[in-house]
């Protein structure tokens, strides 16, 4: 399946949902959803962006219509199109931001209309349909990126400064996640206790430091599996695992499948093929 749109009632939504495709979920209502076991509340009009093999659960307060756009990484590669749509690291592949956006009614209805156009093109299978569908996907991602960026800029303008310890932890994690996987390394670097760091990080990112360390390693593993031709043994070594079998168990526990299966299902990106 290269691209597909499904529509459900939220009452029919599976208790846990995951796919090897990129997913954009559009719905309205009030309740709680979780991505990779992290809970977020939602209200009104919502759009959610998921990378392959992220796990999502939805707990709505009432039964509502939900629309899901699936597209395979080979069909619309966010790395390849990153200059046109700045969604990589903003909508997708960011462990620090809420993966959803609350939309205005106007934006919600417009994106829903784009979903319907994609469904129509996918059904008709016209010779130009693929190009048209890619343009619609690009537009959806561009709108999402613009909305997300404006939210981030608004928080900065309102002087919502991040907690200093949480911000420093994020910098340290980006520098050392491949070699340092223990919480104590980061709290020692910041000269604070594990408990103080955990409270600051949980308040800022709604996740514990240990969860972020794990997510950062898994995110990098997914990127290397999808964007390079490196062997699993080489990827394990780059991420600080002395044993590729331990790395495979670690990956499977978090993602739900082995690195080998992930690469088979998600595929190796055109980006990797172009860089050879």
Strand order of the largest sheet: 1-7-2-5-8
Query: What helical percentage do the residues reach?
Result: 40-55%
Series of H and E elements:
EEEEEEEEHHHHHHHHHH
Q: Pairing-aware structural class of the strands and helices?
A: alpha+beta
CATH architecture of the largest domain: Sandwich
Using only C-alpha atoms, the radius of gyration works out to 19 Å
Overall spatial form: globular
CATH evolutionary superfamily of the largest domain:
Regulatory protein AraC
> What is the number of independent domains?
2
Descriptive notes:
- The protein has 276 residues and is of the alpha+beta class.
- The chain has two domains: 155 residues, Sandwich (Jelly Rolls); 111 residues, Homeodomain-like (Arc Repressor Mutant, subunit A, Orthogonal Bundle).
- Helices cover 48% and strands 17% of the residues.
- The protein is built from ten helices and eight strands.
- Strands 1-7-2-5-8 form a five-stranded antiparallel β-sheet, with helices on one face. The protein has a three-stranded antiparallel β-sheet with strand order 4-3-6, with no helix packed on it.
- Helix 1 runs antiparallel to helix 2, helix 3 crosses helix 5 and helix 6 packs across helix 9.
- The chain starts with a strand and ends with a helix.
- 30% of the residues are buried.
- The model has no long low-confidence stretch (mean pLDDT 91).
